[in-house]
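User: These chains co-purify. Model them together.
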Amino acid sequence: EVQLVESGGGLVQSGGSLRLSCVASGFTFSDYFMEWVRQVPGKGLEWVGLIRKKGDSYTTEYAASVKGRFTISRDDSKNSLFLQMTSLKAEDTAVYYCGRDNYYKYDCWGQGTLVTVSS
Amino acid sequence: QSALTQPPSASGSPGQSVAISCTGTSSDVGTSNYVSWYQQHPGKAPRLMIYDVDKRPSGVPDRFSGSKSGNTASLTVSGLQAEDEADYYCSSFTGSKNRVFGGGTKLTVL
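Assistant: Joint model of the two components:
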């Protein structure tokens, strides 16, 4: 079964840092771009960023709202995706989902992990 | 990158058809063959319903269909059923190598 499981969410103070993880199973993780998408409770989905695979030099792209503060990385040997978040703001409060990018479509999503930034 | 524009709500009676629009620009929807649609029930992760404008993943009922004209993509749900009541989001690849989502549409089955 194709599965993604996020962890690492929690309560953090404004200006603080947090690292989210996403562990994949049931597919060859290294073959796919992987992405982060967030959702403020009761609001819509917002693309956060992506990391390409080894063949594309693990290059990354970020939404303007997080560029310079968030860093996406991956460890293919551990089937893991990471989101390092720094200089957190109240508006970063959201459920963070990891998603498998299968040629520009998210065909697998994790269950999400809630990040709450207190001001 | 601005979010794609969707109507906040849509509704229909069981058995009817309803269409949800997703309007972007010539930098995303207008020039992308990679428009997808997602269904999200409360408290759940999104589910892929349509990809590449009009393709359906296995397991998605053929009541769901997608199309695109110019800068606007559409999701049509035919033969509405109670379980179709959910939030729906469109997404597009953009020319700047990013992705963008619509603001979401809450579909109510009357």
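The two ends of chain B are 35 Å apart (CA to CA).
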